[in-house]
Amino acid sequence: MRGARRLHPEDNVGKPRRVEARRGAAEPEGPPPSGVAPSSLRPRAAEIHAQLARAIPAPRIELDFRTPWELLVATILAAQSTDRKINLVTPALFQSYPTPAALGAAPQDEVERLVHETGFFRNKARAIREASRTIAEQFGGEVPRTLDALITLPGVARKTANVVLANAYRIAEGIAVDRHTARVARRLGLTEEEDPAAVEVDLCRSFPTNEWIDVGLRLQLHGRYVCTARAPDCRHCPLNELCPSKRAAPEGTLDARAALEASRIAAQGEPKADPPG
């Protein structure tokens, strides 16, 4: 939005507390990273999340992975690409180099060949090799379970770290904010910020800590398949009645709109590429 206050990037943003996320758990004691949302915002945020949950009852990341390390590599590769494309590339990569030590020792040119279709392949190949080598040499081959440790890895910024913690370990230290998440949050009036780290702080203020993982996934999927950048489908959006930015009146019942969104996500239409981070 116009006039949005831009904060310094990730390293100066207050870090949310680390908690093990449990479905249905009570909100942990203590405030989110920078206080709590205004009293008028939290009930509305809860209503937004409840409506999204009707359309996306069991949110899951669309990157394929079997281990935390595979998710880390896939997430690094997904910058400026799509999950669908990454899912086509990673099987051959992991077949050739099945462990962090193996990928860390792989020739740069061979890794570049395997990840060429993801775009920015030289930088990505270098990042996943160096991150894998660091995991093998400094972390015993295990992907770290804290944000502070993860962001020491080459190619890993706060968003990537949050993705890995949330989806590999069900640990919430924050909310992974990509461009879809940020766009939906701004349109819903949950933030006025442009910087992803500042958007994350506002979202963490608005939702209970035990909901951060599912909130992040639901906002992202909603932005990919319904609240798109150029042509948001406001008429069929299950959040229409709650959205201050809607461009059209709703059509059909809430249940019908929620079912339509669920079908789009299940079909996994090709989403737009995400920026790095």
From TrEMBL:
Record EC number: 4.2.99.18
Catalytically driven reaction(s): 2'-deoxyribonucleotide-(2'-deoxyribose 5'-phosphate)-2'-deoxyribonucleotide-DNA = a 3'-end 2'-deoxyribonucleotide-(2,3-dehydro-2,3-deoxyribose 5'-phosphate)-DNA + a 5'-end 5'-phospho-2'-deoxyribonucleoside-DNA + H(+)
An annotated GO BP: base-excision repair, AP site formation
Pfam family, one: HhH-GPD
Keywords: 4Fe-4S, DNA damage, DNA repair, DNA-binding, Endonuclease, Glycosidase, Hydrolase, Iron, Iron-sulfur, Lyase, Metal-binding, Nuclease
UniProt entry tagged with the keyword DNA-binding: yes
Basic and acidic residues bias spans: 7-26
The family this protein is said to belong to: Belongs to the Nth/MutY family.
Name by which UniProt lists this protein: Endonuclease III
Origin species: Polyangium fumosum
